[in-house]
């Protein structure tokens, strides 16, 4: 009898092990895809919520800052509106870090530069992911000098 031949039971074990590894890999890919789909859906949902806020508050979308600052409640609403915008883009950048989204962000954020430059604190920035913190730091490079306080 030839000693180099493996018994059929050994081949069955090897095939079973290979199939188990393949099955595990397929499950791992599916779990990763589900996680990605869930993150994308959550980001789209947050952005849709922000889009609805724009429709409900067009006066905050392109704000008159003097008017908004004159009304304390309106200013609080405005700060939350901007936070909502930044959070929506923060979520989008986490899953869709595409140039188109960055251009859209730049178009929308330009109306809020006064608040971003002079109203936000470092603690506010810390609530966002790194990509948004970097985007805010880049935006602030174009901020004018802080106006002197009235005496």
General description of the model:
The chain has 151 residues and is mainly α. The protein has one domain (22-140). The chain has eight helices and no strands. The chain is elongated. The protein starts with 7 loop residues before the first helix and ends in an 11-residue tail after the last helix. The relative contact order is 0.08.
List keywords for this structure.
about 150 residues, mainly alpha, elongated
The multimeric state of the shown protein is single chain
What structural class do the secondary elements suggest? mainly alpha
Cα-to-Cα separation, first versus last residue: 105 Å
Could you describe the largest sheet, including whether it forms a barrel?
Answer: none
The best one-word shape is elongated
Query: How helical, in percent, are the residues?
Result: over 70%
Report the C-alpha radius of gyration, rounded. Answer: 26 Å
Question: Would you report the number of β strands?
Answer: 0
> Strand content of the residues, in percent?
under 5%
How many separate domains make up the residues? Answer: 1
Average residue-wise pLDDT: 87
Describe the SSE topology.
Blueprint: H1 8-56, H2 58-61, H3 65-70, H4 72-95, H5 99-109, H6 113-118, H7 122-125, H8 130-140
Task: Characterize this entry briefly.
This protein has 151 residues and is an all-alpha fold. 76% of the residues lie in helices and 0% in strands.
């Amino acid at each position: 009898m030839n000693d180099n031949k493996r018994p059929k039971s050994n081949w069955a074990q090897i095939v079973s092990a290979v199939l188990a590894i393949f099955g595990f890999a397929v499950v791992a890919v599916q779990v990763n895809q589900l996680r990605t789909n869930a993150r994308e859906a959550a980001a789209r949902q947050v952005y849709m919520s922000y889009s609805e806020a724009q429709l409900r508050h067009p006066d905050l979308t392109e704000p008159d800052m003097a008017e908004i600052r004159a009304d304390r409640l309106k200013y609080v609403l405005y700060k939350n509106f901007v936070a909502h915008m930044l959070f929506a883009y923060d979520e989008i950048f986490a899953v869709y870090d595409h140039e188109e989204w960055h251009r859209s962000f730049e178009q929308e954020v330009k109306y809020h530069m006064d608040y971003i430059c002079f109203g936000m604190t470092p603690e506010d920035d810390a609530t966002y992911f790194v990509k948004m913190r970097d985007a805010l730091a880049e935006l602030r490079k174009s901020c004018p000098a802080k106006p002197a306080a009235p005496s």
